[in-house]
Amino acid sequence: MCNFFIALLLAAATATAQSNRVAQVNVEHYNITADVNTRTQTLAATVEMKVTAIDDRVSTLVLDFNDALAVKEATDESGQRIGVTKGPNEFQVTVALQKPLLKNTSTTLRFVYEGLLAGQEESPVYGIRFASIKNDYAFLTYPARWFPVNGYTADRYTMNLKVTAPDEFTVLSNGLDTKTGNIWSFETKVPGFPGNIALVKGQPQRVSSQGVNSRFYWRESKGMAQAYGEEAGKVMTQLTGFFGLAPSANLNFVETEKGAPGGYSTPGLIFVSPSGIGTSVNTRLLVNQMARQWWSNQVSASTRNHLWITNGLARYTEALYLENTAGAGAMETENRDLYIEALTVDQPPLIQSARLEDYSPEFNAATAGKGAAVYNMLRLVMGDKVFGDFLKQLATKYAGKSISTEQFKTLASELAGQDLGYFFIQWIESQGAPEFKLEYTVFRTAKGFRINGKVINDLDTFRMPVELKIETEGNPEMRTVEVIGASSEFAVETFGKPQRVILDPNGKVLRWANPIRVSVAIKKGEQFAEVNEFGEALKEYQKALDVNRNSSLAHYRVGELFFLQNNYQSAANEFREALNGDLEPKWVEVWGHINLGQIFDVTNQRERAVNEYNLAIRTKDDTQGAQAEAAKYLKDPYKRQVRSE
Length: 645
Prior knowledge:
The radius of gyration is 28 Å and the shape is globular. The strands form 7 sheets. It has a 7-stranded mixed beta sheet with strand order 4-7-2-1-10-13-12, with no helix packed on it. β1 (25-37) and β2 form a beta hairpin. By secondary structure, it is an alpha+beta fold. The protein folds into 4 domains: 21-201, Sandwich (Immunoglobulin-like); 205-427, Orthogonal Bundle (Neutral Protease, domain 2); 436-503, no CATH class; 514-635, Serine Threonine Protein Phosphatase 5, Tetratricopeptide repeat.
C-alpha cells in the first residue's frame, strides 16, 4: 500500500513538472509589421521570429496565440510551408517544423495572419480585455497574445516593430521610434516584453513634476491628468530611491476602456482603464504600475513559478511608498491587509504558482499578496539597511534579465551573511503559516528581572526570528527571539518589572491568530459576494462569527446579503447586531444606521428611517460619502431598487 501511494505521488509530481517544464526554445527576436485598421477594427500582421533550440531535438513548438486571429501562411527560413494547428489548449497553436531544430541552433519562422479585434472577442483571460480596436482609439498588449508568444511572461526578446495606422493617429509602443508617412517604427535592443501598441488621437497633456515629464493620452479622464502627473513625479522620486536609476524616467500613460485591467505596465508605457483612473488619484495603482517598470519589465521571473518575485515586490512597493509618505503606522496597517490577502486562499507553495490561473484572485493573493508578505518578513530577517541594499543590487544585477528563486535566495544570503535556505523552504517551498502560543514566567534577579518563556507553534519545521515587546513599569523594551521548531525556549533580562509580554507585537510574521482568522473569513465572504455566490459568502461570514460573535463587520456583511435578497427583517437584525458589536471598522456605525434607514423606508416606516439617518449624520463619519448619502435620504425617502433577473 505504501508503494502504491508513493507511485501516485511520483506520477503527480511528473505531471506537474511536465506542465511547468522549461520551454523547448528561446525566441530571441521579432520583426513585426502590423496594419491596424480602425475602420474595420481589424489587425493584419506579418511576424518573423528567430528561435533557438534549448532541447536536443525540436520538431514542434507550442505557442500562445490569440484565437481571434487566423494564420494565412506560415513558412520556415527556406520558404517551405510549415503546419500550424490550433491547440492543444485555447489560445495556443502547434507549429510543426519541416526539419527538426537541433540544440543551440537557430531558425527564423514567418507567420502571416489577420483577424477582428473589436474588444468583444473571448480573451486569453476570461473577462479581461487586453486588446481592442475602435474607430477612435486602439490598444494591443502582450497578454492579448496578438503575436505568437513563447514562454509567456518568461521568455525575453528584442523586437523591430512597424505599425501602419490611419493618418490622424499617433502610435505609441516600446523602444526608440521613428515615423515615415503613416508607418511608425520601433526598435528595442534590450531583451524584454515589447510589442505593446496604442493608437491615440490629438496631443497629449504634458505634466512635469519633480523632474519627471509624463504624457497623458486620456480621453474620458482628461481632467485627472494633472493630478496623476504631479503624483507620478513624487512616486518616481521615491522609487528611484528604493531601486536605483529608473528604466524609463519619463512615461506615457494611455487610457484603455471598460473591461481592461485596471493597469498594465510596459517599458515606458502604462495602460490604465477608466475605472483604474477613477475620480481621485489611485496612488496604490500608480505606485504598483510604476514599480513594474523595474519589476516585470527590467527584471522578470525566469518561469511563472517565480512570479512571486516581481508581483510580490510590485505589491510591496505600495507598502514602502506608504511608509515613506504616511509613516510606520500606515505601513503596519498595509502589512496587516497584505497578510490577510495572503491567507485567503488555500494556495499551493509559491514555487508552484504556475498551477494558478493568470489574473485569478488566487493567483493575485499568492504571487502578489503572499509575495509581498515574504518581502516584509525578509526585511525583518535581513534588517532595514541590508534589505534596502539588496533591492538595489537585485535591480542592477538582473537588469534586462530573468531571475529564479534560487538566484534570488543566493543573492539574499550573500548580503545577509547567512544561509537563508530555511526562510525560503518555509515561505516559498512550503504551504501554511504558524499559529503561536506564548508561555512565560517572570523572576526577580539582582540586577532586575528575567523572563523565562516558551513559544509553541504548530509547524515543526518552522524557523524565524520573532520580536518580543516587554511592557514594563517604565518604557517598553524590545527583544528578538529565534523560534525554531514546535517549541522554543528563551530567557531575556529586563531592568523594569515586566507587566506583559507580547509576541510579534507589530504583526511582522505571517501567522494565524483569532483576529486574523476573522478577517480572512470576512475577506473570503466578500470575494464570494462580488460574484453573487451568496450561499458561500454566508458560510464564510458565519466562520468569522464562530470565532468572534461580536464582529461588527461580519454582522454587517451578513446584513448586506439579506438586504440584497429582500429579507429585510433578517437584514435589520444583523445591522442591529453590527451596531452593538465591536464597531470595527469604525465606518460600520454610520453605514449601519443608513442601511437601517433604507430598510425602514422600504417598509413604509418613514419616522424610524429619518431617525436612523439623523443618527448616521451625528457620527460625523464621512467614509465613502456617508454624510451626503444620509442627507439625501433625509430629503427624499429611499426607494426599493428593482433588479433585473
